[in-house]
Every structure is written in structure tokens, then in C-alpha cells.
Design a protein that fits this description.
It is a single chain. This protein is 16% helix and 31% strand. It has 220 residues and is of the alpha/beta class. It folds into two domains: 170 residues, Rossmann fold, CATH 3.40.50; 37 residues, no CATH class. Strands 3-2-1-4-5-12-10-11 form an eight-stranded mixed beta sheet. A two-stranded antiparallel ribbon has the order 6-7. A hairpin with a 5-residue loop joins strand 10 and strand 11. It is globular and about 60 Å long.
Length: 220
């Protein structure tokens, strides 16, 4: 497991933690309020660490986390223990903001391939491909390197993920944006002055103001 020194840990706990590489082009970098954990260090505020392993932070030491369009690149069965560790590391009243693409959104449905039961096989726009042969049936492949979506978040399967994790014990869980099903959606304003979410209206109007991301805040 990656470790950092006690002095570095104490310094970093004064910041928010961002999942994924933190490019200087991102608002979270420009604010000066974030460090990032990423599989490979690319930028100066990145900490090289595999999120599937326990994070190198003390229990109840971090004031906030943000995961933006990251968890869909990690196999679904591995996510509960990541959420467990987020809960462990959060201070009391600390915030975790989670955003993932919403596959109940018509925008994302148009680029997805489904099986005969209506289940998504892959997203053709994000590293997925499908081939079919009479002798072999349908084969689904995902681009290597971590760029492909490995599962396809909806409000229902995200709720299942939450209730299977310690994160469900947060004192307050608020869904800001989501398609609850394929007909009903919510798109409520939220404070994004510290933790902006890129793929939400009014920043992203590809869906005419309807949600294309699920955005949930967890307050410990």
C-alpha cells in the first residue's frame, strides 16, 4: 500500500480529497483546496494510490471527498469497500460528493448497446464494443487502460451500492440530480462553490437542462 509521512498526512487533511488525477485545468485544482488520489501520479497534487486499497489517512481525519466520473471505471463489486473507507476517513459533518453518469438519461441510452432483456452491455462512446458471430454469440469488450465504463450507474443500482456500504450510516444523504427511473427525474440546485460537477446543467446543457449525472451528497 502507498504510504505518506505523518507530516504530509497532517498537511493533506487540511484539504479536500479528489478521486482521480487532478489536472491544473480543473476547477478543483485552481481553487487550491484539493489533493487527489490516483492510480498513477501525473500532476503535482496527485497522490499515487490504488483506491481499492485502504487510503493512507487516519480515521475521521478528512473534511471532504469528491468523486467525479471515476467510480464507473472500477468494477462494481469492488466499490462497497471504497465507500467504507471514505466513511472511515471522513470527519464528523464532513462531506462526500459523488457524481457518476446516469444511464437512465436518454442522452446516454442512445450510445449504449442492450441485450434482449434491456440490460446495458456497453457504452460505445466510452471504451465499449460488441461483436457477434453465429458460432460464438455476442462478445462484449472494454478498452484497456481504465478508460472504459465497466458498469452503468442508475439510481437503482447506485442505491443498492450505498446500502451495502458503511456510507449508508451518514447522518444525511441528499440526491441532487438523477433520473429516478426512465420517466421521472430530479434536478435540484446545489452549492457547487467548492465541489463543482462538470457534467451538470447549466455547465452541460446537452440534455436541455435534464440530468445526465447522478449527484449525491453524503454528510457524516
Amino acid at each position: 500500500m502507498f504510504t505518506i509521512s505523518d507530516n504530509e498526512t497532517r498537511a493533506i487533511t487540511d484539504y479536500y480529497i479528489y478521486f482521480g488525477n487532478l489536472s491544473p485545468n480543473e476547477e478543483q485544482y485552481k481553487s487550491g483546496l484539493f489533493y487527489a488520489i490516483a492510480l498513477n501520479k501525473r500532476f503535482d497534487r496527485d497522490i499515487a494510490h490504488d483506491a481499492r486499497l485502504p487510503m493512507p489517512f487516519e480515521t475521521e481525519s478528512i473534511k471532504g471527498f469528491q468523486s467525479q466520473d471515476v467510480f464507473e471505471h472500477i468494477p462494481y463489486p469492488e466499490l462497497p469497500r471504497i465507500l467504507d473507507d471514505v466513511f472511515r476517513c471522513l470527519r464528523t459533518e464532513g462531506i462526500f460528493r459523488l457524481s457518476v453518469p446516469d444511464y437512465n438519461s436518454p442522452l446516454l441510452q442512445k450510445r449504449s448497446v442492450y441485450d434482449c432483456d434491456g440490460n446495458i452491455l456497453c457504452d460505445l462512446a466510452i471504451g465499449g464494443s460488441v461483436s457477434a458471430k453465429t458460432s460464438e454469440g455476442v462478445k462484449v469488450a472494454f478498452a484497456p487502460g481504465g478508460d472504459a465504463h465497466l458498469w452503468f450507474p442508475t439510481y437503482a443500482n447506485l442505491m443498492q451500492l450505498i446500502v451495502s456500504s458503511e456510507i449508508r450510516k451518514c447522518s444525511k444523504i441528499t440526491t441532487h440530480h438523477a433520473w429516478i427511473d426512465r420517466r421521472n427525474w430530479i434536478c435540484n440546485p446545489f452549492d457547487d462553490s467548492i465541489m463543482p460537477v462538470l457534467r451538470t446543467p447549466p455547465r452541460d446543457m446537452r440534455a436541455d437542462g435534464k440530468p445526465i449525472s447522478i449527484v449525491i451528497d453524503f454528510i457524516k
